[in-house]
Amino acid sequence: MATHGNSKTADRILDIAERLVQTQGYNGFSYADIAAELKTTKASLHYHFATKAALGTRLISRYGENFRRALEAVDGEEPNALRRLRRYADLYAQVLRKDRMCLCGMLASDFFTLPKPMREAVRGFFDKNEAWLVRTLEEGRRARTLQFAGPAEEVARTLVASFEGAMLIARSYGDASRFESVASRLVAQLDGK
Amino acid sequence: MATHGNSKTADRILDIAERLVQTQGYNGFSYADIAAELKTTKASLHYHFATKAALGTRLISRYGENFRRALEAVDGEEPNALRRLRRYADLYAQVLRKDRMCLCGMLASDFFTLPKPMREAVRGFFDKNEAWLVRTLEEGRRARTLQFAGPAEEVARTLVASFEGAMLIARSYGDASRFESVASRLVAQLDGK
DNA sequence: GTCTATAGGTGGATAGAC
DNA sequence: GTCTATCCACCTATAGAC
Question: Is pTM beyond 0.90 here?
Fold first, then answer.
């Protein structure tokens, strides 16, 4: 196979790379950065992930999978759609409190410098977010815990965009509360009262 | 002096660099890219802008100045605050239709890799956006062309964050209408009826 | 102001020993 | 799996001729 990225070492590489992409961007980190932190060599990293593009693609699929699991947990634990939206917002806030940007929000800004497989995976992440939100919004509207006008898809896209943008800007101010006040306001507007 | 960036050539350099930053990010372009497009040499660029940081700082101040002028024009031409917000949103949409991200939104994602003077300038851009929005929102609320609950500052921050995020994501889909539907929805929510 | 040439460093990636 | 050594392309930046 081209890449051996399935070991414990591979996971540690992914952990470090993930943090570096979320803080510095895809073009702002290098194999040398990871090697220094892992106290190994660049050559060794290339054994686990043959190319930076392969590493990047794996990062996105792992991040998406973790996000999917987190949303599944929210669905399982919280029957109220309004409260599920608050939990969704808190997933973003948790990332921000680690001084990180959403991995895919960061990659969206690097979008036109990314290899094609990574571009498609980034869009896929947003699509999955939107789909979860549409389900949640429609169910909440039916149950009257949420209210909003127009297609759920439009509201979902507004939420994803606003949350990503609020993270991006809050990070520049080192102030997570900037995200939280924006997120609270947007979710409150959907409250079915 | 350290830099001679005030000639017509300097302006052409800034035009090219601006587009490259808006599409590829600060770490995604080089003096070589500019030189190739301007059909000159990297050394010649260094005469106009001694360092990449100096070029970057100048880019932000010029972008901010142009934005300020655009907002002044909106203020002069449009007495209705709701319509001024629509014009504000359209300034973003115009950038996006050129397949570009907002310069400072892009730099916000590169934030922790930027030299300190650039970081401060990026925050300054957002501050000025927010201040203009606060003035507009408060005036619209007084005149009853706008309505919203809570501090204008919170609404202003929500708008900046949402517009930046909507640009970021719309660009990944190559679909400016994704921005426009989000922006329309957010502005419509403020309509004083 | 623009050029050639080059310095000194880092990028991603590979060969081959162990 | 990890290492040393190395390749070559590219990076920002400077020296000095024109």
Answer: yes
